[in-house]
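Our example pasted here:


***
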Amino acid sequence: MGIIGETEDRMQHKFALFNSHIDLSHALWKKLILPGDIAVDATAGNGHDSLYLATLPLQKLFIFDIQKEAIAATRKRLKDVSIPLLFHECCHSKLDEVIQERSIKLVVYNLGYLPGSDKQIKTGSKTTLQSIQVAMRLLVPGGCICITCYPGHVEGAHEEAQLIEVSSLLSPAEWCVSWHRFQNRKESPSLLILQKSENF
């Protein structure tokens, strides 16, 4: 069937640089985060991103999700974490209601729906774009927004297209924007990265 039909598990045995958007994300986060930084997991899901972020030298980690089940799952997954965790069961468009501007080094989004739950409950273009605008104001100079998009379903493809369109219009003097996707893996997740200038 070729590479397109292979699973991510099988791909993990073939490529030394990175096998998935997750590998690339983790490498970027590890390089970015310095002792004392603050991060946000804007879409907690089952807590996998939060768990990795908690291994980095953060001062504290904000964790958001609109679903009670996601917050509960993330709490359970991070029960042995030593850094302060601040959980908020609300939409990611409300980040600025509890976080000060220019205080965050990294904001992470993993869009779509909660695995194993009601697929009708998922992120959407309107609130995601609102949230990104808010997150941009929260970042310290040199801070980063990292967004995993899932174009394999209709809303996910629309959400990705809207994010790409909006981010492509950002000032290159103020933002560095990159978009990573696997060209030969049909409907695979993509990774959109927005980094704020250290002079902005």
About this structure: The beta strands are 37-41, 58-65, 85-89, 104-110, 139-149, 175-181, 190-196. The mean pLDDT is 90.
